[in-house]
Amino acid sequence: MQSLEKSKVRKYLGLTAIEGEKEIEMAMVAGIEFQTIFFLKELANNDLLIKIERKYPGAEFISLSKDLFTKISYRESTGGFLVVAKTLVKTLETLKLPKNPLILIIEAVEKPGNLGAILRTADAANVDAVVCCNLPSDVYNPNVIRSSLGTVFTVPLAIANNAETMAWLKQHKIVTYCTNLHKAKDYHLQNYTQGCAIVMGTEASGVSSEWINFANQNIKIPMLGKIDSINVSVATAIVVYEAKRQRGF
């Protein structure tokens, strides 16, 4: 189990570990295939256990002692479950876009907690697609699963590099807005009612020059205090909900 903490192992095996009742339930909603379910009988929600057993009759169920369960768990508040599940290969080709889609592009966001929070926002705002470009890790990092509350499984998501994503946006005639402090216009003055993509980058260096040069318009959130940036997950929520406001939610 500890080996699944490593990104290269998750990618090689095509597996990840899921902890927490909400996260497990979201994975079930998304149809993620459960391979092995470890549970601590005195802590596990019996109703959820029955639900899992009915949905995955072919899975392996292993009851553990408290000491052993604690040893293999990543976090303290697991709800008494730890699931080993198969990951999905998510590409641009798997995304199905509606008319005038709202797309979120996440470039090189390095902190799993930030990526998870962004995915929660994407779910809450019902964004049509999220494309992750050039991530230093992978979206099935246990901390991404936890901080996203399992929405990493339910949000329409694809993994691609910058060039592939740009070609895909051109193909679908998507207007692109890139968050950037320089040569940018205030985010709330733009029109997000057409098919559009919003590009977010890292807090340390922002988006790459590739996206700045590619975008139809660079946008910024006015900074009224002493600092010149805010947390990327917060910035994402601000811009995405302005787009949803313009679309009448």
Question: What is the number of helical segments per DSSP (H or I, 4+ residues)?
Answer: 10
In the CATH scheme, the class of the largest domain would be: Alpha Beta
Write out the CATH superfamily name of the largest domain: SPOUT methyltransferase, trefoil knot domain
Largest sheet: 7 strands, parallel
Regions with pLDDT < 50 over 5+ consecutive residues? Answer: none
Give, in order, the helices and strands.
Answer: HEHEHEHEEHEHHEHEEEHEH
On the 0 to 100 scale, the average pLDDT is 95
Q: Which percent range fits the helix content?
A: 25-40%
Going across the major beta sheet, what is the strand order?
7-6-5-10-8-11-9
Radius of gyration, whole Å: 19 Å
Strand content: 15-25%
Quick one: overall form?
A: elongated
- Annotated CATH topology of the largest domain: Alpha/beta knot
Structural class: alpha/beta
Number of strands: 11
Number of domains: 2
CATH architecture of the largest domain: 3-Layer(aba) Sandwich
Intertermini distance:
42 Å
Keywords:
249 residues, seven-stranded parallel β-sheet, 60s Ribosomal Protein L30, Chain: A, four-stranded mixed β-sheet, 2 domains, alpha/beta
